[in-house]
């Protein structure tokens, strides 16, 4: 335990925020390897469980922009504690679910709680930690989150295979109780003396439009009329939001930032690249477990090299950007990522574990570089007082594109699935990853619009 009141306060705050980041990161990946077993337990097929993933990440995307206002209005201690309670209770409900609809509803509630964990933690650290220690502190939290994302798939596979799929969710309960105790004792309460008016109408329009858009994309194959009408409704809602945000004094999302080219390119490129990459989250597991007859633990373990590759590659970002700049780097790396996504089509049930491990590691390196550089590009040309809004927009776009990437990959897999046999799933997987690779490659066209000067970090 650190000595001195200040060191002790910093220790407990770092532990609390890191725990929140760990919970959110683990929960974003721990379900993946358990999907086939959950599907069997709930009497459905794995591809029909994609709402379990999309509901969580889309809820994160919708709710994250509201967290800064909630902190200013009600204080960080109350909001962080409330987020832990909601997240933990939702995890319990997920584990108790007896149908797909119950599980999806609980995941939405889980997303509401999870949306505040990392943003509030970062907000508290920025407001309370000595600037000289801030970078190291935030880096520690980010590392804990990466560790959570790394062990999540393997932990999910092991729990689902050897104990019960319900433990994938129940494991959050003791962690949440511990975090709540620490929050009540050690979380500092930061709040604004005066706060801006919350953009309630903008929040409702953005949330409803996002849900309607996702729902229409998921149902377009089953019912073309429902898909088209849903898409039209989403477009109308987003159009109303755009008109409203231009006249709102404090909009939920400040669209004026899109006038900055680097912001517009970062957001659009991020969306398109993640649509292709995120689609692999679900179908990788289905390919390994259903197509290749791997166990949940084996499939979860095979996702670990990808996460490790991402962690390792992040160390190279600064040097690569200083040497090449954003535009050249993104043009080359986006192409390599697209090729690696499409390259999964060359895999088969006979592919050796060593070959697949190396491939997953290299793929993780490329995607780790891509994510980091895309996420930092948005900050290169904006003013200091716009950083908070840009950060919120970047997080929203990240989870928004993840949810739609999973939905699109599921649609493609269903379209290419000739029969419910292992070979049928292998065929569908190969066709799907080729299209996802093409989608990812198209993001390079957006990054090509960056000025040649390509701002250095």
Key terms:
single chain, 457 residues, mainly alpha, Growth Hormone, Chain: A, 3 domains
Structural class: mainly alpha
The sequence of SSEs as H and E is HHHHHHHHHHHHHHHHHHH
**What is the CATH T-level topology of the largest domain?**
Growth Hormone, Chain: A
Terminal CA distance: 37 Å
Quickly give the CATH architecture of the largest domain.
Answer: Up-down Bundle
- Tally of extended strands? 0
Helical proportion?
Answer: over 70%
> How large is the share of residues in beta strands?
under 5%
What is the count of helical runs?
19
Biggest sheet statistics: none
When the domains are counted, the total is 3
CATH superfamily of the largest domain: MFS general substrate transporter like domains
Q: What integer value in Å does the Rg equal?
A: 21 Å
CATH class of the largest domain, anyone? Answer: Mainly Alpha
What does this structure look like?
This protein has 457 residues and is mostly helical. 78% of the residues lie in helices and 0% in strands. The protein contains 19 helices and no strands. It has helices spanning 5-29, 35-41, 50-63, 67-74, 76-96, 100-128, 131-162, 167-170, 172-186, 200-219, 224-247, 261-278, 280-291, 296-314, 317-324, 326-343, 353-377, 387-416, 422-447. Helix 1 crosses helix 7 (131-162), helix 12 packs antiparallel against helix 17 (353-377) and helix 14 packs across helix 17. The chain is globular, with a radius of gyration of 21 Å. The relative contact order is 0.13.
């Amino acid at each position: 335990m650190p000595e001195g009141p200040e060191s002790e306060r910093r220790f407990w705050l770092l532990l609390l925020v890191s725990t929140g980041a760990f919970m959110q990161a683990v929960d974003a990946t721990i379900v993946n390897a358990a999907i086939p077993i959950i599907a069997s337990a709930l009497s459905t097929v794995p591809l029909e469980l994609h709402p379990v993933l999309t509901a969580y990440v889309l809820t994160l995307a919708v709710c994250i922009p509201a967290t800064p206002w909630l902190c200013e209005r009600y204080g960080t201690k109350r909001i962080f504690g409330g987020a832990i309670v909601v997240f933990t209770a939702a995890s319990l409900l997920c584990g108790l679910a007896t149908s797909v609809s119950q599980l999806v509803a609980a995941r939405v509630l889980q997303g509401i709680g999870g949306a505040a964990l990392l943003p509030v933690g970062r907000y508290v650290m920025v407001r309370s930690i000595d600037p000289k220690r801030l970078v190291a502190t935030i880096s520690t939290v980010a590392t804990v989150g990466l560790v959570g994302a790394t062990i999540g798939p393997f932990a999910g596979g092991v729990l689902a295979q050897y104990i019960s799929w319900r433990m994938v969710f129940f494991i959050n309960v003791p962690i949440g109780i511990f975090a709540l105790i620490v929050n009540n004792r050690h979380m500092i309460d930061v709040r604004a003396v005066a706060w801006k008016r919350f953009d309630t109408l903008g929040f409702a329009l953005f949330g409803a439009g996002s849900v309607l858009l996702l729902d229409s994309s998921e149902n377009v194959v089953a019912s073309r009329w429902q898909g088209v009408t849903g898409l039209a409704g989403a477009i109308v809602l987003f159009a109303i939001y755009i008109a409203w945000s231009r006249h709102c004094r404090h909009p939920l999302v400040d669209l004026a930032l899109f006038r900055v080219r680097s912001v517009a390119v970062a957001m659009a490129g991020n969306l398109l690249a993640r649509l292709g990459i995120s689609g692999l989250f679900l179908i990788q597991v289905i390919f390994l477990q259903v197509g290749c007859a791997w166990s949940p633990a084996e499939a979860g373990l095979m996702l670990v090299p990808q996460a490790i590759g991402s962690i390792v590659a992040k160390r190279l970002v600064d040097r690569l950007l200083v040497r090449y700049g954003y535009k050249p780097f993104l043009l080359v790396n986006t192409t390599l990522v697209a090729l690696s996504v499409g390259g999964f089509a060359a895999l088969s049930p006979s592919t050796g574990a060593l070959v697949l491990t190396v491939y997953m590691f290299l793929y993780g390196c490329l995607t780790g570089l891509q994510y980091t550089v895309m996420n930092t590009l948005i900050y290169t040309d904006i003013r200091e007082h716009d950083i908070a809004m840009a950060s919120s927009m970047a997080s929203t776009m990240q989870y928004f594109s993840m949810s739609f990437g999973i939905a699109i990959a599921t649609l493609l897999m269903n379209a290419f699935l000739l029969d419910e046999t292992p070979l049928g799933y292998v065929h569908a997987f190969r066709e799907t990853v080729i299209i996802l690779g093409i989608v990812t490659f198209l993001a390079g066209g957006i990054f090509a619009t960056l000025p040649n000067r390509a701002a250095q970090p």
